[in-house]
Write a structure and sequence with these properties.
Order of helices and strands: EHHHHHEHEEEHEHEHEHHH
Number of helices: 12
Bound molecules: thiamin phosphate, magnesium ion
Radius of gyration: 20 Å
Structural class: alpha/beta
Binding site for Mg(2+): 9, 11, 178
Largest sheet: 6 strands, parallel
Cofactor: Mg(2+)
Binding site for substrate: 20, 95
Strand content: 5-15%
Number of strands: 8
Oligomer: single chain
Protein name: Inorganic pyrophosphatase 2-like
GO molecular function, one term: metal ion binding
Helix content: 40-55%
Strand order of the largest sheet: 3-2-1-6-7-8
Length: 281
Amino acid sequence: MAGVVVVFDFDKTILDCDSDNWVVDELGISELFTQFLPTLPWNSLMDRMMMELHSRGKTIKDIAECLKHAPLNPRIISAIKSAHASGCDLRILSDANAFFIDTILKHHGLIECFTEINTNPSFIDEEGWLRILPYHDFSSHSHGCSSCPPNLCKGLVMERIRASLPAEGKKNIIYLGDGTADFCAGLKLEEGDFLMPRKNYPIWEITCTNRSLIKAKVHEWNDGEDLETILLDLINPFFIEEKYNVRSSTTDRMVLAVECKFLTSSIPAHEASSNSTLPVP
Ligand SMILES: Cc1ncc(C[n+]2csc(CCOP(=O)(O)O)c2C)c(N)n1
Ligand SMILES: [Mg+2]
């Protein structure tokens, strides 16, 4: 497995909309949603909205069908498949919920690419009502972060993800996201990691004004095409390093990022399959 962990936000990063808003709008309860919004935290409101759909006769199947049509750029599908094929450890960190994410990833044939989905848990109760629970049980104690919603602090989960990685053979982390909570996750990145904030989204604005707080290298992206190009360019040097048993520094990796396409196309087939050592440029 290449020494890279890629952590994706889900809504407005993998999916090109908010899955919560998509379901609420498509299944015709936007007005009710807006009416309740000032009274409930978002996560509790989504659970309440699922009850509303259930009482209006909408089934789990209706919700799943609706999710399958949510917009997902094909370049993001190919980026995820390529990163997985390169041996990266792919994970999700999202404030949507398990049912929405599983349904969408399965529909696009992506679920097997991920080793872990960190999100609000969900289950279907005995009456067929989709229940959505908070990731952190905030009724007992607060996570203490003022920039994240009470149900999920992405910074805290990033710390857990890092702590779960094997101590030997340090892994580098690439984080992609769009929201304020994704910035909180970005604050936990270290030197050698990469933050990919979506341009003109909240994370990008905050990153621009708080650049000195981020230890990782920052690469902004606009759309699926950008995401694919930048992500694969970041991953490639790690892949080359592992494949040809080359160790390099962060600076070397930047050179490798430029050179690796040349290297892969110029290595004779018999060498490409062996564990040969290439000189680091
Ligand atoms: C102004 C404003 N009010 C409420 C919300 C809440 N919210 C909207 S969509 C969503 C799911 C994000 O999933 P993911 O983490 O996958 O992007 C959440 C928690 C917001 N983002 N902005
Ligand atoms: Mg998002």
